[in-house]
Amino acid sequence: MSSQTLDLGMGDLTSPSALKASFAELLATTLLVFIGVGSVAAFVAASGPDSALVDGLPVIAIGFGLAIAALAAGTGPISGGHINPAVTFAIIITGNISVVRGVMYIVAQLIGAVIGMLLLKAFVTADAFDMIPAIGGNRLSDAVPSNLAGVGLEALGTFVLVWTFSRLP
User: Fold this and answer.
1) Which among 63, 78, 102, 124 could bridge 92 via Cys, Cβ 3.0 to 4.6 Å?
2) Is residue 37 in some structural domain?
3) How many degrees, rounded to 5, is the angle at CA 29 between CA 25 and CA 35?
């Protein structure tokens, strides 16, 4: 048996490149939440609260899709463009980044998500903010038969996202 040591990457705590990358993740996640949930707020404010569940899906999907594409492209060279703790966790597990750097990214992403919602709340009227279905969170469609089925669909979608990122060079 060979003796191997696990490098947690403690040097990343003070590494300028790790700090820069963590800031990129924070900024990208802030903007993703602001733009993505903002697209929900804009559509709901223009069309009414029930319209987002049917007519607004393409508009909202395009808002999120364009935001994630631009942000991932912009932060890709700096941090890998994870912008999602599930993706970062997968990259840690596959050994593509150190544990410490991954934890730094996840903390930055969580803080960024909170900042994104606080900014949205600051820039959107209270009435429009209150009309956002589940305050921008996910809500199961009536077509999904149960909460367990919803968890299964979310797990499948997350798997596809994480698997795709973990396959990138």
Assistant:
1) 102
2) yes
3) 145
